[in-house]
Write a structure and sequence with these properties.
Layout: H1 19-24, H2 28-31, E1 37-40, H3 47-56, E2 62-67, H4 70-97, H5 111-123, H6 128-132, H7 146-161, H8 190-199, E3 204-207, E4 221-225, H9 248-263, E5 267-273, H10 284-288, E6 293-302, E7 310-319
């Protein structure tokens, strides 16, 4: 297990707990070797990608992952190409942070909080927009630079030391999660970073809207979509991965593209929330994916608005096979 790549970042809606169910619902063409491409255009924390690479890496030869979140793109590209430099940068941060007195319940100030806020302020500095965007202020930069190593290290550091390991940004795109309270967070996790770097070898990594990263899809491709979940009433909902919204209009647009890819002969799977958990008459996904198969699978998630209630609820897996 030590050499098995695991998600580097804790990511809301991560699929580690559903990997067994997802694997059971994979198309036979993945398992018998007829599928040779894997495409995940909303990769997030990457649990499904890492699972596919480990289990089917001898038959699936081409991997394409992407995300609209530029910081995720940076993390994956730096781990792929500069993992030793990233580890060194993380060790500097860990060696400064970990000797400081742990934050206690109710603390508003403290040495760890002070360092965390300093790194968060650096992370949110407007100067990073010059690294993130092209001169048009819209398109993302994709050429790896030395500064990206620092950026990736800060992303991982903040994820490991913030409240509940949550990635969240405000309407201006600024990371706004407060400091967490962990005595000994594993800021570096050197062994897993090296395993992830190995898993990313030869993988095509890109950034941008999912529609822009599907040109390679053909009848030898398996595509897995994991969009921001449609919120259920009175339940926790974390969709603030970036400042763009993903509402019902966007869900419908994704369903339309799902149909287009089906016409190319690709095998498709999509995850989302099941609105019937809170309203048995809500046919939103049943309607927009009416031409496909909807599997309702069990998932253990927080089901109360305060996050205390956890239990078996259902999520959906939509497939075209």
């Amino acid at each position: 297990m030590g050499n098995t790549a695991r998600p580097v970042l804790k990511w809301a809606g991560g699929k580690r707990q559903l990997l067994g169910v997802i694997d059971e619902h994979l198309p036979s063409e993945v398992k018998n070797g007829e599928v040779t491409k894997f495409v995940e255009p909303m990769v997030g924390g990457g649990a499904v990608f890492f699972h596919m690479k480990e289990k089917y890496g001898t038959t699936i030869t081409d991997y394409f992952i992407s995300d609209y979140n530029w910081d995720l793109f940076i993390v994956y590209r730096v781990i792929q190409a500069r993992v030793k430099d990233l580890i060194s940068e993380l060790e500097i941060l860990a060696n400064e942070y970990l000797p400081l007195p742990p934050t206690q319940k109710g603390d508003k100030e403290g040495e760890r909080i002070s360092m965390y806020m300093r790194i968060r302020d650096e992370y949110n500095d407007d100067e990073w927009d010059k690294e993130r965007y092209l001169s048009d202020g819209v398109g993302f930069r994709k050429k790896l630079t030395d500064r990206w190593v620092r950026r990736a290290a800060m992303t991982i550091f903040l994820n490991r030391t913030c409240f509940n390991g949550l990635y969240r940004v405000n309407s201006s795109g600024k990371f706004n999660v407060p400091h967490g309270r962990y005595n000994n967070p594993d800021i570096v996790d050197k062994q897993n970073l090296q395993a992830v770097s190995n898993a990313l070898e030869g993988v095509n990594i890109s950034v941008g809207s999912y529609e822009e990263n599907l040109d390679m899809v053909d009848d030898k491709t398996f595509v897995y979509f994991d969009p921001p979940y449609r919120p259920l009433p009175n339940t926790p909902s974390f969709t603030d991965y970036h400042k763009a919204t993903f509402g019902d209009t966007e869900q419908i647009e994704l369903a339309e593209l799902f149909s287009e890819l089906d016409q190319r002969g690709a095998k498709l799977m999509l995850s989302n929330s099941d609105p019937k958990n809170t309203d048995e008459n809500d046919e939103f996904f049943d309607d927009i994916y009416s031409e496909f198969i909807i599997h309702r699978v069990n998932a253990r998630r927080a089901i109360n608005s305060d996050g205390k209630g956890r239990g078996e609820i259902t999520e959906i897996l939509v497939t075209n096979y």
